[in-house]
Amino acid sequence: MKKLFGVLCAVGVSASILSFNHNEIADFEGTNAPDLVKSHVEWKGTKFDQAQNKDKWHNGKVELKDAKVKMKNNSPEAVSVTVDLSKMTNYDLPDAMQGRLVSHLQSADFFDISVFPDATFTSTKITKLTNDKFQFNMEGNIKVKGVSQAINVKGHIVNVDGKQMLESESFQLNGEEFGFIKPGGGYKNVDLRVQLYLD
């Protein structure tokens, strides 16, 4: 796995400081939840096509079930995201084929949403960055298909139509490590980017 995030990906940490210990729980009291209608995780999955000797890909988005972002001085202190894998869509295929692809991704061959309907990220530490394209680095734990791993990912706050959005960099998850990609099938890691609309 690329040790960056973010989520998808994307995305947290305590009240008067910009980080908290790994054993502490982030305090989200008084925090307004992001706009779950606009917020989402963008995904891009790649597979090597042996017949054409090149990579082929599909992309789309996944909606969120829940999200929390605690802000202070225009920077996040804590981030928590729950992704609803039952609400996955595809962008690149014709309409008639999109449902078939999404159903396959949601099946036991990949994410097995009947058993693992959600994926989550909870921050454990957020650090401000200097001299970098991104404003901060987020450390946290990501859980997919029952497997948890520590992850680091960069992010920034951008303005979209006069509104604030927390956006992660594009980051990768190793599907074999999380169990949603089977070894030897030609599928590669999935690229994710998280966008949380804060107001």
From TrEMBL:
Residues 42-199 form the Lipid/polyisoprenoid-binding YceI-like domain. It holds the Pfam family YceI. It comes from the Bacteria. SUPFAM superfamilies: YceI-like. PANTHER family: PROTEIN YCEI (PTHR34406:SF1). This is YceI family protein. The lineage of its organism: Bacteria, Pseudomonadati, Bacteroidota, Flavobacteriia, Flavobacteriales.
